[in-house]
């Protein structure tokens, strides 16, 4: 209930009035049934504006740090994440990755929309980075279509490290659904997972016209952090 209040009564109308988002291809999102929205990730506000423009409920997988921070700010952040339909996941790998996969599969099993960022983290510089194969495994295990989504100019509105957004317009480009049913039962094949993931990233690059880098965004962030020390 609080999700819909935030979307249509409390925050939604205000955000739409201030940032005037433009959307192309919204009709490509199925009106019912389980589907994955695979999006590029430029800014924290990607997880706000995409669900805001989709008529159906969208659940995003978000890093668990947002749900465990302390103090009043931590409580407010957790409340906001829950209100906007985001689900905590642990990115430490191993059993944590398996738990994250199961969290996403549970959303899809209910016939709902699951939002995923294949890059695994926000782009550090506006470029599009190599996708993680977890999204492909989820697609093949659930047997659902995936819709590519390109967020446009969200990094200019709220860059990494900024607490408050600037005023400006953002865009959302929704591509046509991708069908990977030809790979049914092959979710254990790492080459198939990489092929599916790369096809998704190609579509994201085509939609958003970002420069593509065949390296993980997390690797770039780690290198930059080590150089700054």
UniProtKB/TrEMBL annotation:
<dbReference type="Pfam" id="PF01553">
    <property type="entry name" value="Acyltransferase"/>
</dbReference>
<protein>
    <submittedName>
        <fullName>Lysophospholipid acyltransferase family protein</fullName>
    </submittedName>
</protein>
<feature type="domain" description="Phospholipid/glycerol acyltransferase">
    <location>
        <begin position="35"/>
        <end position="154"/>
    </location>
</feature>
<keyword id="KW-0808">Transferase</keyword>
<dbReference type="GO" id="GO:0016746">
    <property type="term" value="F:acyltransferase activity"/>
</dbReference>
<dbReference type="InterPro" id="IPR002123">
    <property type="entry name" value="Plipid/glycerol_acylTrfase"/>
</dbReference>
<keyword id="KW-0012">Acyltransferase</keyword>
